[in-house]
Amino acid sequence: MNVLLIGSGGREHALAWKLAQSPELGQLYAVPGSAAISELAGCPGLEQDDFDGICAFCAQKDIGLVVVGPEAPLAKGLADRLTAGNIKVFGPSQRGAMLEASKQFAKEFMNKHSIPTAAFTVLYSAEFAREKIKANKKYPVVIKADGLAAGKGVRICRDEAEALAAVSDFMVDRIFGFSGSKVVLEEFLTGREASVMALVDGHDFLMLPVSRDHKRLLDADAGPNTGGMGAVCPVAVSAADMETIKKEVLQRFVNGAKKSRIPFRGVIYAGIMFTAEGLKVLEFNVRFGDPETQAIMPLLKSDLLPLLHACACGELAGKTLELYDGACVSLVLASAGYPENPEKGKAITGLEAVPGDVTVFHAGTVLRDGAYVSNGGRVLTVTALAPDPARARARVYEAAKKISFEGMQYRKDIGV
Ligand code: AMP
Ligand code: GLY
């Protein structure tokens, strides 16, 4: 089967790496892809928002499955376009993508279908938001821009001044554009977090191993939030919590999507927090996590391609997942200035010195005169699978020491 992968980051490099191992794969293509992905897939030079071009390419190359990595094309309706053209797609409908693209939509969905989540209020204007904040007596409080904001639209506000500043930034100055036209004011929760992902075909779900990413820039969870500085998989979850995840989060999600007439064939990602009052869903994403995917793919013994295809066809029932024993750690090597103003164009050295049992997924690199240079905030994810987390961590950090580019920064405590 010929497969087209949409996206260009570290997550897509990991998906391409896994799909390329499938005995069922014919040709693999990627749009837009990247220099590193082009070592595994043909990159025809299309852009991911060129839906006409993508549909024409699928017909021309007899694509049996399109796998969509990032949320943006899903939120713009790529899956609906492909489905209308009878092309099988792994990735939810535009309505399904609203679960990620609108915090209000996600919170209302969770309340409607009894999925445990933090208490919240939607604020539709800056004036109303300021009134609500002035009446609020309990801090911290969480303020979230309603729309997509590349992981930066969430502020934990310690006092009234910070909450008012968030409203001003999101709703008046519109630092995230239209995404800040509404905000969600949310109860502040505490507890450890985990990333729960499951393949969903509209009727059934198949859970992937639970992982954890490290969102803050600096060690010991200090510094600003980022897209994720590293991930570990699997994460130990008690039998009781696992039961709750399956029954109260994933099953209710699948039933809810059906009831609310949301076509959903793809991956649902629930960011959860284990609080003293039980586990709660902080957010839904409608795509694989990044960098969690880089830590999950090496653990999968099962062939990914038939699973994603079954999902796209609504035939997931009875499918199972086989995993390798052990643990996987994935470490992000980021540019100086990340997340605010990443420096780019720095020569990367030492990739050839990385041992064979460590995999380096490229997130933001380009080839210049035949050599890789940095081209984004998150540049590389260094990943190792080992019999236990301590050994996976040791392999990753040894390999990271061999790689260098000017200003390279990374956390020293991933998986601790
Ligand atoms: P989100 O994009 O909604 O997952 O939020 C990003 C991060 O903000 C989460 O991973 C949490 O660390 C934090 N966060 C979000 N919502 C809450 C909340 N209600 N209470 C405490 N922290 C939160
Ligand atoms: N690592 C968090 C995310 O993919 O949203």
Describe this structure in words.
This protein is an alpha+beta fold and 416 residues long. It has 4 domains: 92 residues, Rossmann fold, CATH 3.40.50.20; 57 residues, 2-Layer Sandwich (Dna Ligase, domain 1); 123 residues, ATP-grasp fold, B domain (D-amino Acid Aminotransferase, Chain A, domain 1); 74 residues, Glycinamide Ribonucleotide Synthetase, Chain A, domain 4, CATH 3.90.600.10. It is built from 12 helices and 21 strands. The strands form 6 sheets. A 5-stranded antiparallel sheet has the order 11-14-17-21-18. A hairpin with an 8-residue loop joins strand 6 and strand 7. Helix 5 packs across helix 6 and helix 7 runs antiparallel to helix 8. The protein starts with a strand and ends in a 14-residue tail after the last helix. The model has no long low-confidence stretch (mean pLDDT 97). The structure holds adenosine monophosphate (AMP) and glycine. The site of adenosine monophosphate has 14 residues, from strand 6, strand 7, strand 8 and strand 16.
Rg, nearest Å = 21 Å
Q: What portion of residues is helical?
A: 25-40%
**CATH superfamily grouping of the largest domain:** ATP-grasp fold, B domain
Tell me, what is the CATH class of the largest domain?
A: Alpha Beta
List each distinct ligand once: adenosine monophosphate, glycine
Indicate the proportion of strand residues: 25-35%
What would the principal axes of the Cα set say about the shape?
globular
Overall tally of domains: 4
How far apart lie the N and C ends?
40 Å
Q: What is the CATH topology classification name of the largest domain?
A: D-amino Acid Aminotransferase, Chain A, domain 1
Structural class: alpha+beta
Mean pLDDT, all residues: 97
Q: Largest sheet, if any?
A: 5 strands, antiparallel
The CATH architecture of the largest domain? 2-Layer Sandwich
Strand order, biggest sheet?
11-14-17-21-18
How many helical elements? 12
